[in-house]
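Instructor's aside before we start: the two examples that follow are unrelated to each other. I chose them only because their records fit on one page, so don't look for a connection. First example below.
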Amino acid sequence: PALLKKLRRMTPENVAAACRAMGRTKFFDGDILKVLNDVLRRQLQRDQFSASQANDVLQCLWEINAYDQGVLSAIASNFKSKILQLEPLLRQMWREIFENFKHEKDSDFRQLLETPPLTAVSPGYQKLRCFHHSRGSCALGEACTYSHDPRAPLTLEMFAPMRSSPLVMTQNQFT
C-alpha cells in the first residue's frame, strides 16, 4: 500500500529502482502494476528516462511477464531518435524483449534495434542494400537510410575494384 501511494510522485530514478526491485523479487500486484504502467507511460512521454532506466523497466516487465503495449510504445517513441546512442548489447536485449512480447505495433523501432540507421556521412548511406527491403518488409519505407534498389551492393567491399595483381611493397614504403 505504501508503494501504491508514493508511486505517482516518484522521480524516474525511483520508479526505475522500484522496477528493479519488482523484477528481482518477481513481485506482482495488479493495482500497483496498473499505476506503475500509467506512471511509466507519462514519464517516458516526457522524455524523463535514460536508456539505463528504460532498460530497468523493460527487464522488470519481462521478469514479471507484464506486457503493456503503451509502455513499450512509449519506449519506442522516446528512443527511436536516440537509437545510435544505444549500445549494441542493449539494442539486442530490447529487440529480444519486444519480439518475445510479440509487440508488433512499433515495427520500425524493432527494425532500428536490429539494424541501426546509417548517418548521412557514412560511406554506405543510401548505397548499401536494405536487408529488410530485400526480404520484402522494410518498416521504415522512404525514411530508410539504406538503398531499396535490388542492384545495390550488400557490403562496401563490393564497391572496391578488385586488384588484378598482388600488392608488393618495396623497402622504402612503410605500412
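Example two begins here.
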Amino acid sequence: MAAAGSGAGGGGGGAAGAGEAEEPLTAREELMALMEKKDAMEEEIGALVAHLESVGVGLKESLVDAEGYPRADVDVHDVRIKRHRVAVLQTDHVAAMKRIEELLAQVHAEARERATKGGEIGASAAAARGGGGSESRRSSVSWADGKDGADDAPPRRYDEDGLLIVSASEAGIPP
C-alpha cells in the first residue's frame, strides 16, 4: 500500500498517476516551474501583509495592550496564523531564489555546452559567418542583420532564447 502513493525523492507532489514513470524535468523546465512558484509565493505574501496592515497590526505590531492583555480589537489567533504563514513563505522564498540562481547557472552552462558542440544555433550561426575560429565558440549568440538606427551603432546580439545581450558599457555600468 505504501508504494502506490509514496513520493520517492521527497519532491513536489507530481501530477502523474500511480505506476507511471515520470520523466525528469530539464533544468530549464524546473527553472520555469520554480519561477512560477516564486511568483505565487510573492503574491501570497503580499496579500497576507496587506490583510495584516488593513487590520492595523502589520508584521511587527504588538498583539497585547499596555497592561499585557491580548488586544480586543484584533483577532490575535488569526494574526498569529497569518504572520506564521508569511514567515514560512519568506523562508521558502529564500530557498527558491537560491535554487533559481543555481538553475540559471546550469541552464546557461548547458547552453554554452550545446554551442561548443555545434548545436542548431551554433551550426547555423557559423555557416552564416562563413566559418569557425574563435567566433564558433560563441555560437549561442547570434547577431542581428542590420543596425539600429544610427550608422555607427554596433549590431545587436541575441542569445538562443532571443534575449538581447548588452555589454556592461552599453548598460552604463562603470568598469
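The first strand starts at residue 142 and ends at 143.
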